[in-house]
Amino acid sequence: MNQQAPHFTLQRNPFGRLVFVDASGVAHEGVVPVRAFPITAPDEGLSIVSPDGHELAWVDHMHALPADMRALLEEELASRDFAPVIRAITAVSTFSTPSSWTVDTDRGVTQFVLKSEDDIRRLGEGKLMITGGHGVSFVVQDRLALDKHSRRLLERFL
Length: 158
Hints:
Helix content is 14%, strand content 40%. It has helices spanning 67-80, 148-155, and strands spanning 9-12, 18-21, 27-29, 32-35, 44-49, 55-61, 86-92, 99-105, 108-114, 120-124, 127-131, 137-140. The chain is mostly beta strands.
């Protein structure tokens, strides 16, 4: 696969902010990487946006970037993205909504309120996104890979 070098560079300034330098050498400090599809295709479609909201560059595939630039972007994205992965559903207060859920995630055990069945979105290939009452999005990577008890609880809401 022939990869073309990007027409920009990325670096961190002494204050830890991301700096984008375009092909003409103009530096834009405090840029923000934004994934187009953070859950379904996290490595495809990335926009680098200036602090005032203007797109400076579009990256089709993260793997097409040089390793050092990719590492900077992944580090920046990791500090912004927060979508705990549900490993097990241990309890549900009621099978109607709103209901309180207790789940085991990759970040630990937590509770949230499911306001409506509409807060469970199917993303394809068994993947789900569940939005809790405070707006935190939880991801189920593969609902069929959950344990039997978790699947049974989840099926009541799907």
